[in-house]
Amino acid sequence: MSAVGVAAHEAGHALQQQAAYALFDLRMWLVPATQIASFAWSGLFMLGFVFRGFGPQFIGLAIAVFSVLTLFQVVTLPVEFDASRRAKEQLLKLGLVQRVESPGVSAVLNAAAMTYVASMLTAVLELVGLLLMARDQRR
Fold first, then answer.
1. Catalytic member of 10, 89, 101, 126
2. Quick check: 1 and 108 in contact, CB under 8 A?
3. Is the dihedral of CA 1, 122, 13, 86 positive or negative?
């Protein structure tokens, strides 16, 4: 059941693209920025501590860059839940999964979605931590 659920979830993303699902498009638009931001934010943050005179500027820039990663995680969450919803609908509609099997597929897809919830919460908490560190450095 898990392989079918995962494959259907990925097909759900294709359905999102076909339907021009706005959050999917936004997420795809953010991908290049997140690739850069994932490497840049920590270097900028460290420069803020190394170059004390320019510290607040570097740290502020690092926080702005990390905010792109957090935004990506926030946008990703509904995209992933929607792909799973579309997947479940199609599996039932096409008869690939019987109603009796639906709870198993839902369990697999929901468990996978929880990884995205954890990622989003982690990003939000890291952003809060960065903001608190920046505030403490200004004192």
1. 10
2. yes
3. positive
DSSP codes of every residue in the chain = -HHHHHHHHHHHHHHHHHTT-HHHHHHHHHHHHHHHHHHHHHHHHHHHHHSGGGHHHHHHHHHHHHHHHHHHHHHHHHHHHHHHHHHHHHHHHTTSS-GGGHHHHHHHHHHHHHHHHHHHHHHHHHHHHHHHHHHHHH-
- The rounded distance, in Å, linking the Cα atoms of 72 and 93 is 31
The pTM is what?
Answer: 0.82
pLDDT of residue 62: 87
Q: Across the 139 residues of the chain, what is the mean pLDDT of every consecutive 10-residue run?
A: 78 93 95 92 82 76 92 95 91 87 85 89 94 77
pLDDT of residue 138: 67
Catalytic annotation present for 101: no
